[in-house]
Write a structure and sequence with these properties.
Elements lengths: L17 E8 L21 H5 L1 H8 L8 E7 L8 H9 L4 E7 L6 H5 L9 E4 L1
Parallel strand pairs: 1-2, 2-3, 3-4
């Protein structure tokens, strides 16, 4: 039996990537009873919410934050955010951002997702 004091390290040596989730919108087109976000699906998305992402991108792109990171965009349904292309492009343009995972319910048509095949979204991965 090991004691917690016996633990000297955890994770993979040399792996220094920060990973986090960003809840960019709390609206979804479905009202699934089993969804963890169902209680949040009551918000009215206003003009301040629409541009709040700019402050986040600015912070992540600051000179004093130079750690490699990967980010999951979640919600509600992140594809409903009216500025999603700008958010994805902004994250992809940050040098120390290594991966952007768009977590989606795939309710949008294939043509919506096809727009992200452009090289400016090179770090974006769509994950159902």
């Amino acid at each position: 039996m090991h004691n917690i004091d016996d633990v000297t390290a955890a994770g993979t040596k040399g792996y220094d990537v920060i990973a986090f989730s960003w809840d960019i919108i709390d609206i979804c087109q479905y009202k699934c009873s089993y969804c963890a976000a169902v209680d949040f699906n009551k918000h009215l998305f206003d003009k301040n919410d629409r541009v709040a992402y700019k402050n986040v991108l600015k912070r992540l792109n600051m000179n004093n934050f130079k750690y490699p990171f990967q980010i999951e965009l979640i919600g509600g349904e992140p594809t409903l955010h009216p500025e999603l292309p700008a958010i994805l492009e902004g994250l992809s343009s940050i040098d120390h951002c290594i991966r952007v995972e768009l977590i989606t319910n795939l309710a949008k048509p294939e043509s919506f997702f096809a727009q992200f095949n452009d090289p400016k979204y090179r770090k974006v991965v769509v994950s159902p």
